[in-house]
Design goal:
3 helices; rod-shaped; 76% helix; single chain; 210 residues
């Protein structure tokens, strides 16, 4: 990082006065005027050196500001890159909420169906069509909700990856970290398969849960 030091304030010196050579001889007057020109030249040199110091100081300040701007840009790029990871994790949490709701619907519907099916087999109830249909409806609702959640998650993640790749190609983010495989999505797919098997067993009385 550039270390800037402000130059000392210029000591304002009076401008050398023009000597009076009217009563002097030409040779003596020429020497006096030559000395006066030397004093003026020294005075101008001092001003020039001070202006040079100020110019160098401004250059150092400009370099320092450029370094700060570079650091802020780097931090902004990293924050933007991390925001993509936070957005991905938020999408994972949303899918987990869908999984919890779908699991509740599927398990509750399957339980209702099995309870009244067993009660009918044991002769405890004579008409179990309404609760059986209600259980099938709950399971079907859970499967549909899970399908919509998976489709939305896949669409959102595809768009997020495209946006991240576009910003990486434009040099706006580093995009060094990779998106890991979504275990939440794998769990949702497994639960979807279980729900499909469950409703097949309930409707057709066949399958692993029949």
């Amino acid at each position: 990082m550039t270390k800037t030091t402000r130059p000392n304030r210029f000591q304002d010196q009076p401008l050398p006065t023009i000597p009076d050579v009217s009563d002097m001889s030409s040779d003596q007057g020429s020497v006096i005027l030559s000395q006066h020109r030397t004093h003026l030249s020294t005075f101008r040199t001092g001003l020039s050196e001070h202006r040079t110091d100020l110019s160098e100081y401004r250059t150092d300040l400009s370099t320092h500001r450029t370094d700060l701007s570079t650091e802020r840009t780097e931090m902004s790029m990293r924050r933007t890159g991390m925001s993509f990871q936070r957005t991905r994790m938020s999408a994972e949490r949303t899918l987990m909420s869908v999984i919890r709701t779908s699991l509740s619907l599927i398990s509750f519907g399957f339980t209702i169906f099995q309870v009244f099916e067993k009660a009918k087999d044991e002769g405890l109830v004579t008409h179990a069509a309404a609760p059986r249909n209600f259980g099938v409806t709950l399971v079907l609702l859970g499967i549909i909700m899970l399908l919509v959640g998976i489709a939305y998650h896949l669409q959102f993640m595809f768009g997020l990856r495209q946006e991240r790749d576009a910003m990486h190609a434009a040099g706006l983010i580093h995009a060094q970290s990779k998106f890991p495989p979504s275990m939440t999505l794998v769990t949702a797919l497994i639960l979807l398969a279980i729900g499909i098997f469950a409703i097949m067993s309930m409707v057709f009385q066949a399958g692993p849960f029949g």
